[in-house]
Amino acid sequence: MQEFPGSAHVGSFGLATAPDPAVWTFAAAGGFTVVSKDTDFAQRALLLGHPPKVIWLRIGNCATPGVVTLLKLQLAAILSFLADPALSVLALA
């Protein structure tokens, strides 16, 4: 998502087909936040804590522009979440 500086798709790191645990380990080691529609990442974060933090997109099928719009609309909530050391998961709908 080029709309957000510093953002990258897992494919940019050769992880497009990697299993969730590999993505999780990579994100934790690299200081990344996982943004996903996948319930598994949210559950993993609730079970294991962070890093990495997880932004769970609770939206149906939509194109990338819809995801970008949601993230832009929720930017204040996202920044607050990222700054709070006690939180592991942010659910956005």
Describe the structure.
- The protein is α/β, with parallel strands linked by helices.
- It has one domain (10-92).
- Helices cover 43% and strands 12% of the residues.
- It contains four helices and three strands.
- The chain has helices spanning 20-30, 39-48, 64-73, 75-83; strands at residues 34-36, 54-57, 89-92.
- The chain has a three-stranded parallel beta sheet with strand order 1-2-3, with helices on both faces.
- The longest helix is centred in the first third of the chain and has 11 residues, at 20-30.
- The two termini are 18 Å apart.
- The model has no long low-confidence stretch (mean pLDDT 92).
Question: How many extended strands?
Answer: 3
The tally of helices reads 4
**Average pLDDT for all residues:** 92
* Major beta-sheet overview: 3 strands, parallel
Measured distance between first and last alpha carbons: 18 Å
User: Unreliable segments (pLDDT under 50, ≥5 consecutive)?
Assistant: none
- Overall structural class, as computed from helix and strand content, comes to alpha/beta
Q: Helical content, roughly?
A: 40-55%
Task: Estimate what percentage of residues fall within beta strands.
Answer: 5-15%
User: How many domains, as an integer?
Assistant: 1
